[in-house]
Automatic annotation (TrEMBL):
It holds the Pfam family Peptidase_S26. This is S26 family signal peptidase. It is found in: Cell membrane. It comes from Dactylosporangium fulvum. Its main location: membrane. Belongs to the peptidase S26 family. Residues 5-88, 98-134 form the Peptidase S26 domain. It comes from the Bacteria. It is a single-pass type II membrane protein. SUPFAM superfamilies: LexA/Signal peptidase.
Protein backbone atom coordinates (compact mmCIF):
# COMPACT_ATOMS: atom_id res chain seq x y z
CA UNK A 1 0.00 0.00 0.00
CA UNK A 2 2.87 2.36 0.84
CA UNK A 3 4.44 1.76 -2.60
CA UNK A 4 1.18 2.63 -4.36
CA UNK A 5 0.89 5.88 -2.37
CA UNK A 6 4.51 6.76 -3.21
CA UNK A 7 3.92 6.11 -6.92
CA UNK A 8 0.75 8.23 -6.87
CA UNK A 9 2.61 11.06 -5.14
CA UNK A 10 5.40 10.98 -7.74
CA UNK A 11 2.89 10.94 -10.60
CA UNK A 12 1.04 13.87 -9.04
CA UNK A 13 4.22 15.91 -8.64
CA UNK A 14 5.31 15.14 -12.22
CA UNK A 15 1.88 16.14 -13.50
CA UNK A 16 2.06 19.42 -11.64
CA UNK A 17 5.56 20.14 -12.98
CA UNK A 18 4.46 19.38 -16.54
CA UNK A 19 1.39 21.59 -16.18
CA UNK A 20 3.50 24.49 -14.91
CA UNK A 21 6.24 23.88 -17.47
CA UNK A 22 4.16 23.46 -20.61
CA UNK A 23 1.69 25.66 -22.44
CA UNK A 24 -0.83 24.83 -25.13
CA UNK A 25 -1.57 27.72 -27.48
CA UNK A 26 -3.81 28.02 -30.53
CA UNK A 27 -2.82 29.83 -33.73
CA UNK A 28 -5.30 32.56 -34.69
CA UNK A 29 -5.20 33.96 -38.21
CA UNK A 30 -2.83 33.44 -41.10
CA UNK A 31 0.29 35.31 -40.03
CA UNK A 32 2.29 32.09 -39.57
CA UNK A 33 1.35 30.51 -42.93
CA UNK A 34 2.62 28.21 -44.33
CA UNK A 35 4.29 26.88 -41.16
CA UNK A 36 1.17 26.93 -38.99
CA UNK A 37 -2.47 27.20 -40.00
CA UNK A 38 -5.32 29.06 -38.31
CA UNK A 39 -6.59 26.78 -35.54
CA UNK A 40 -3.42 24.71 -35.05
CA UNK A 41 -2.70 23.79 -31.41
CA UNK A 42 0.94 24.20 -30.41
CA UNK A 43 2.85 22.85 -27.43
CA UNK A 44 5.33 25.29 -25.91
CA UNK A 45 7.84 25.10 -23.06
CA UNK A 46 7.16 27.95 -20.62
CA UNK A 47 9.58 30.80 -20.01
CA UNK A 48 12.35 29.96 -17.61
CA UNK A 49 12.58 26.35 -18.74
CA UNK A 50 14.02 26.99 -22.21
CA UNK A 51 17.49 27.82 -23.37
CA UNK A 52 18.43 31.26 -24.69
CA UNK A 53 16.28 32.41 -27.57
CA UNK A 54 17.75 32.15 -31.07
CA UNK A 55 16.75 33.53 -34.43
CA UNK A 56 14.38 31.00 -36.02
CA UNK A 57 12.68 29.93 -32.77
CA UNK A 58 8.89 30.12 -32.79
CA UNK A 59 7.61 31.74 -29.61
CA UNK A 60 4.34 32.43 -27.83
CA UNK A 61 4.45 36.02 -26.57
CA UNK A 62 2.28 38.74 -25.12
CA UNK A 63 1.34 41.78 -27.15
CA UNK A 64 3.18 44.93 -26.01
CA UNK A 65 1.22 47.58 -24.11
CA UNK A 66 -0.60 50.02 -26.35
CA UNK A 67 -1.39 47.47 -29.07
CA UNK A 68 -4.57 45.46 -29.43
CA UNK A 69 -6.00 42.71 -31.58
CA UNK A 70 -9.67 43.24 -32.44
CA UNK A 71 -11.59 40.59 -30.51
CA UNK A 72 -8.34 39.46 -28.87
CA UNK A 73 -9.42 39.93 -25.28
CA UNK A 74 -7.52 41.57 -22.45
CA UNK A 75 -4.17 39.85 -22.85
CA UNK A 76 -3.87 38.15 -26.25
CA UNK A 77 -0.99 35.84 -27.04
CA UNK A 78 0.84 35.91 -30.36
CA UNK A 79 2.68 33.10 -32.12
CA UNK A 80 5.69 34.53 -33.98
CA UNK A 81 9.14 33.58 -35.24
CA UNK A 82 12.21 35.19 -33.71
CA UNK A 83 13.87 37.12 -36.53
CA UNK A 84 16.74 38.53 -34.46
CA UNK A 85 17.96 38.64 -30.86
CA UNK A 86 19.71 41.34 -28.83
CA UNK A 87 22.92 42.46 -30.53
CA UNK A 88 21.81 41.29 -33.99
CA UNK A 89 21.15 43.89 -36.70
CA UNK A 90 17.51 44.94 -36.76
CA UNK A 91 15.75 43.13 -39.63
CA UNK A 92 13.02 44.65 -41.75
CA UNK A 93 12.63 46.98 -44.65
CA UNK A 94 12.89 50.22 -42.67
CA UNK A 95 16.61 50.59 -43.44
CA UNK A 96 17.66 50.56 -39.76
CA UNK A 97 20.86 48.59 -39.22
CA UNK A 98 21.51 49.36 -35.56
CA UNK A 99 21.69 46.30 -33.28
CA UNK A 100 18.72 45.30 -31.18
CA UNK A 101 18.98 46.53 -27.58
CA UNK A 102 19.79 44.13 -24.74
CA UNK A 103 16.76 42.24 -23.43
CA UNK A 104 14.81 42.47 -26.70
CA UNK A 105 14.02 40.29 -29.68
CA UNK A 106 12.51 41.00 -33.09
CA UNK A 107 9.51 38.78 -33.89
CA UNK A 108 7.87 38.34 -37.27
CA UNK A 109 5.13 36.27 -38.86
CA UNK A 110 6.00 33.77 -41.58
CA UNK A 111 3.48 35.38 -43.95
CA UNK A 112 4.99 38.77 -44.92
CA UNK A 113 2.61 41.71 -44.77
CA UNK A 114 -0.09 39.80 -42.88
CA UNK A 115 1.22 40.00 -39.36
CA UNK A 116 1.05 42.14 -36.25
CA UNK A 117 4.72 41.83 -35.29
CA UNK A 118 7.91 43.79 -34.63
CA UNK A 119 7.55 45.47 -38.01
CA UNK A 120 4.56 47.21 -36.37
CA UNK A 121 5.47 47.50 -32.69
CA UNK A 122 9.29 47.36 -32.79
CA UNK A 123 11.62 45.18 -30.74
CA UNK A 124 9.79 43.04 -28.18
CA UNK A 125 11.03 42.85 -24.59
CA UNK A 126 12.11 39.25 -23.90
CA UNK A 127 10.04 39.32 -20.69
CA UNK A 128 6.90 39.22 -22.90
CA UNK A 129 7.88 35.78 -24.24
CA UNK A 130 5.70 33.17 -22.54
CA UNK A 131 7.18 30.05 -24.14
CA UNK A 132 9.02 28.45 -27.04
CA UNK A 133 7.03 26.20 -29.38
CA UNK A 134 8.33 22.64 -29.45
CA UNK A 135 5.69 20.96 -31.64
CA UNK A 136 2.30 21.09 -33.30
CA UNK A 137 -0.27 19.09 -31.31
CA UNK A 138 -3.14 19.17 -33.78
CA UNK A 139 -4.40 20.95 -36.82
CA UNK A 140 -3.70 20.98 -40.51
CA UNK A 141 -0.29 19.64 -41.49
CA UNK A 142 1.50 21.73 -44.12
CA UNK A 143 1.40 20.18 -47.57
CA UNK A 144 4.68 19.09 -49.08
CA UNK A 145 5.56 20.97 -52.22
CA UNK A 146 7.56 19.52 -55.08
Amino acid sequence: MLIILAVLAVVGVLGLLLRRGLLVSRVRGGSMLPTYQDGDKLLAVRRGLFRRLRAGDVVVCRLPAGFAIPGGGDNPLLVKRVGAVAGDPRPGGDGATDPLPAGTIYVVGDSPGHSLDSNTFGPLPEKLVVGVVVRRMSGVQPSQSR
